[in-house]
Design brief:
Elements (H helix, E strand, L loop, with lengths): L1 H15 L12 H13 L3 H12 L6 H17 L3 H13 L9 H10 L3 H14 L4 H13 L3 H17 L7 H15 L5 H12 L1 H13 L3 E2 L8 E5 L2 H10 L13 H17 L5 E5 L2 H11 L6 H13 L4 E3 L33
Parallel strand pairs: 2-3
Antiparallel strand pairs: 1-2, 3-4
Helix pairs in contact: 1-5, 2-4, 3-4, 4-5, 5-6, 6-7, 6-8, 8-9, 8-10, 9-10, 9-11, 12-14
Amino acid sequence: MNLQNHLIGALRGAWYRAGAVIAYEPEDEEALEREFAEMLQASRFDDAREQVERLAADPAAPRCLITSMLADLGSELARQGRHDESIAAFERAIELGWEVEPDGRCEIARVLLLAGRHAEADALWAQLRAASPADIWMLNAGGISYSEARRDEEAVEWLADGLRVALSDADSEQLLNQMSDERRAAFGRLGREHDELEREVNVFRARRGDRRDEQTAELDRSERGSAGPGGGSTATVVWLSEAAEHLARERWPGWADGLVIDEPFDDRAARMEMTMRRRRADGDGSLEVVTIDLERYAAWCEEQECDPAHRSSRGTFVTVERDAGAGRPWPPNRNEPCWCGKDRKYKRCCGSPTTRDPGASQP
């Protein structure tokens, strides 16, 4: 244990000895994130640490950018089995004021489990649980981490507490399906039948069936294309980037005619994200997103002599694009660009735990 602490301290000390301070410019953020992602992809971890510490020394650099980089570094180091370095990265993020839901220490506890340091992990998870026994995001993280480590008894117990919280507040955080699916997988590995709590989950799911049907219909209204009926099909979601949507509305005045819901881009993206999450959790098949390239669409409409403002033209074009392999599987990896077209990582955009359906009503 002393050797481990010495190693982590040495690693963190090395970050403080990073090179000269650079001046942060707000417009540089996207370029910095791209450069940092390239470093992680190339396993240039020393360069990544140096970049982070240079930013940390600049009071103009946003803390959220720095701590997000450290979290990405910690995740990639954990993926490569470099657990001590991963823990050091997460600890540095917390030290710099990392604001994340749930508590950032959940990531450390998860890495400890991955490293096989179960006693330390158990102690940290117990500390987190005692501090916030009804924090559904923490219970979800703990249950999934124990499931990932194949400690299925603990996974069943943690996820049970999470499900009770979800059932008590009508699943306001939209985590019930994920937790139940993970818990049932753990039951399967243990060779056990589902318990009374899972039967309560089934009742809850049935009661909100009308709401689920409404969301499925909304997905259809969003010009969904399907490979066939039934649960095993792949649904295609038609999408435009925010800039392309504005351009389409200016270019073709009838573009928005017939929309069931015409709402701000961010609200529509959040609504679609939550719809796709529910569809996936309900086991209704896979999803792919086809983002319309407006120039290619305009050229196709001209060639086909179609009205580009008409919804049927969009539907036919997307079918052609999908069949040509233009669809992008959803969900993207957490560090990949968000499917909605904004220049942000999925985890910091639509994939954020704070994403909510703006039109959702409580059952």
